Amino acid sequence: MGTDTTKTLSASEESYIETIGNLIRERGYARVTEIASILNVKPPSVTNMLQKLDEQKYVTYKRYRGVILTKKGRSLAKTLERRHNTLKRFFVMIGVSDENAEKDACKIEHEIDPETAKKLAKFVEFVQSAPRTPPFLEHFTQYLETGERPKECKVKIQIKES
Amino acid sequence: MGTDTTKTLSASEESYIETIGNLIRERGYARVTEIASILNVKPPSVTNMLQKLDEQKYVTYKRYRGVILTKKGRSLAKTLERRHNTLKRFFVMIGVSDENAEKDACKIEHEIDPETAKKLAKFVEFVQSAPRTPPFLEHFTQYLETGERPKECKVKIQIKES
DNA sequence: TAACATTGTTAGCCAAATCTAACAGTTAGC
DNA sequence: GCTAACTGTTAGATTTGGCTAACAATGTTA
To answer: Which of A17, A94, A128, B147 gives the lowest tally of CB atoms within 10 Å of its CB?
Structure first.
């Protein structure tokens, strides 16, 4: 239970939480200047946001003493991280450069509905857990390069029990 | 030529331009109250934005006299519309509800890089221009429903020249 | 341990995009 | 062609999330 006054967070708020999560995972702690440099903002903006996120119980923040995520914050950070990875893998899968895949994942992860995130995750999983690169993906890659749908697409196939 | 002082627009500015474009295409004109109701804002916000977009030459706006798109505005509206359709078709393709596909397309169309938009358009085109629903998509649909990768995926296939 | 360098915070400002309340222009019906 | 109803606009407040400049706490090192 517990009155969950969870108003939805802004993209900006979510980015801070995600960044804090990443830093803590990678380094064990999250510093104001580093958060600032990752998010391309100045340190006072970070302090400001940390105060807001502390009020909303996503982080525990003591001035000059650093910041950690609460349970609520960790849970959100995890969701965002997974969503980010799904998006990025999908974009790379369809031929987007690593750089743009990363950049777009950062933005879109804050916009999509949970249903969409779920379906996309399934799709990426479906493709990537295949025993080998699925033919359709190879064909698509060829299609990207040549503009031509490869011959095999137009060919009769015969299934043989293995 | 012409000094193209095209600073990038905000998601909000783009939404107004897109909405105006849609209304003009569907009805021949775009009214303040209708723009407001589609975008879920109040009329004064619309007036305000129309003035800004007029300064930036995306629309031609005369108080009390309505608004039309400039060439620059039409071009942007067209890009956004195409991007929107691509995104929506993709989301529906992977099993997202029509409602969420629409909603998410609206948000994401303002965030993605042109490269990503292009690759995604190619992907959707690749799938949808196929002579019939590609097997992998059918298999994915089954995977969504049953959680099981269909047998055919695990089977040896043999290509026969037609 | 005192002074300096680094890091973090506060105060106060700004811009974007929204809102409400009050006002102005346009249009339709009588 | 007046007037009421509708539509659109202005003015001014609010919210969010940035910024700079000045200050405070912490940490480092001679």
So the answer is: B147
Considering only CB atoms, B108 lies closest to which of A108, A126, A131, namely A108
Tell me which CATH code domain B11-69 carries. Answer: 1.10.10.10
Q: CA(B42)–C1'(C21) in Å?
A: 13
What's the alpha-carbon Rg for chain B, to the nearest Å? 21
- Give start and end residues of each alpha helix (H) in A5-113: 11-27, 32-39, 43-55, 71-93, 98-108
* Terminal-residue alpha carbon distance, chain B: 53
With beta carbons less than 8 A apart as the criterion, state whether A73 and A61 touch: no
Can you tell me which residue has the tokens 């995520």? A69
Report mean pLDDT in 10-residue bins for chain A, 162 residues: 67 98 96 98 98 97 96 98 98 97 98 97 93 86 85 50 44
Is the Cβ of A132 closer than 8 Å to some Cβ of chain B? no
Tokens standing for residue B19? 């909405």
Residues 132-151 in B having a C-beta less than 7 A from any atom of strand D are none
Distance from CA of A151 to the nearest CA of B (A): 10
Q: What is the CA radius of gyration of chain A?
A: 21
**CATH topology classification for A11-75:** Arc Repressor Mutant, subunit A (1.10.10)
Closest CA to B101 of B120, B84, B121, B117: B84
The amino acid sitting at B67 is V
Contact present, B20 and B69 (Cβ < 8 Å): yes
Tens digits of residue pLDDT in B21-55: 999 999 999 999 999 999 999 999 999 999 999 99
CATH class of A80-153: mainly alpha
A55 touches strand C (CB under 7 A): no
Is residue B55 classed as helix, strand or coil in its secondary structure? helix
Mention every residue, 6+ apart, whose C-beta is less than 8 A from residue B54. B60, B61, B67
- B78-147 CATH, one of 1.10.1240.10, 3.40.1360.10, 1.20.120.80, 1.10.60.10: 1.10.60.10
